[in-house]
Design goal:
Helix content of chain B: over 70%
Helix content of chain A: over 70%
Shape of chain B: rod-shaped
Strand content of chain A: under 5%
Oligomer: heterodimer
CATH superfamily of one domain in chain A: RNA polymerase sigma factor, region 2, helix turn helix motif
Radius of gyration of chain B: 39 Å
Number of strands of chain B: 0
Number of domains of chain B: 1
Largest interface: A-B, 35 and 24 residues
Radius of gyration of chain A: 17 Å
Largest sheet of chain B: none
CATH class of one domain in chain A: Mainly Alpha
Number of strands of chain A: 0
Order of helices and strands of chain A: HHHHHHHHH
Number of helices of chain B: 2
Largest sheet of chain A: none
Strand content of chain B: under 5%
Distance between the termini of chain A: 45 Å
Order of helices and strands of chain B: HH
Chain lengths: 167, 87
């Protein structure tokens, strides 16, 4: 696997996907680095069952979700660590919002929507991002998430319902 | 349904990543390679340590044997001295 060719082929896919999770340029860049380091280290483990794009999607999603979890753990206060409060884990909050892909016209509405998506459970968040932002067909999303198309549809409907309650 | 604003998500633009990121990735990969110790060096280090340990065990055991032999010899000499004295 040629490092440079692979990087240039998928760099913006990885970066933009990470950006949809973090809504922050610096964090998305960091995740992008993590993803490609992992891709190059584990290139021998890559099985030909799925295509490379699907594999890279999966790594990016997992790295993004891990990054968010790690960030939330660091944010938890000393007191919440003592009493074992899980508030910050169940309701992650988005600070440092810096998403360059939002146009001026609908910026505030989109910003609010992205903040709500950030708070969704992981699977619902991923389904919404892949279906509605990445604009992937349901079949491809099912392949990436290793679920049936029916499960993807169910996740999407639940995500919509959760968002409606929040908005 | 438009009241959930999900249609707005299609308006999010794709962004180009900064050119410097590739250099950071290659540096991280190079650092990682430098940190990983080659197995043959590990083998040499283990062999040296084992050699030292066994050498030390051999040295100590041979010192113990020498000490025991000296003690036996001293006992023998003591007995002989007493016999000579009484004569």
């Amino acid at each position: 696997m040629n490092i440079e060719i692979l990087y240039h082929q998928f760099k913006n896919l990885v970066f933009n996907l990470a950006l949809q999770y973090t809504n922050n340029i610096e964090e998305a860049e960091e995740i992008t680095q993590d993803v490609f380091v992992k891709v190059f280290q584990h290139s021998k483990d890559f099985k030909q069952e799925a295509d490379i794009k699907t594999w890279i999607y999966r790594i990016t999603i997992n790295q993004s979700l891990d990054y968010i979890k790690s960030k939330q753990r660091k944010k938890r206060s000393f007191w919440s660590n003592i009493i074992g409060s899980k508030d910050s884990e169940s309701n992650p909050t988005l600070s440092d919002f810096n998403h360059p892909g939002l146009e001026m016209e609908n910026k505030e509405a989109l910003k609010e929507l992205m903040r709500k998506i950030y708070q969704l459970p992981e699977q619902q968040k991923t389904a919404i991002i892949l279906l509605k932002i990445e604009d992937l067909p349901q079949k491809e999303v099912a392949q990436i998430m290793n679920l049936s198309e029916g499960a993807i549809e169910s996740l999407f409907q639940r995500a919509k319902s959760t968002l409606k309650k929040m908005l | 349904m438009k009241n959930d604003n999900l249609h707005l998500l299609k308006k999010i633009k794709k962004v180009e990543i900064s050119d410097s990121v590739f250099d950071k990735i290659t540096k991280r990969l190079e650092n990682r390679v430098a940190k990983v110790v080659p197995m043959y060096k590990v083998g040499i280090a283990v062999a040296l340590i084992l050699g030292l340990v066994f050498g030390e065990i051999y040295f100590i055991s041979s010192r113990i044997q020498d000490t025991q032999q000296m003690a036996q010899l001293n006992e023998l000499l003591k007995d002989n001295n007493n016999a000579l004295y009484h004569e």
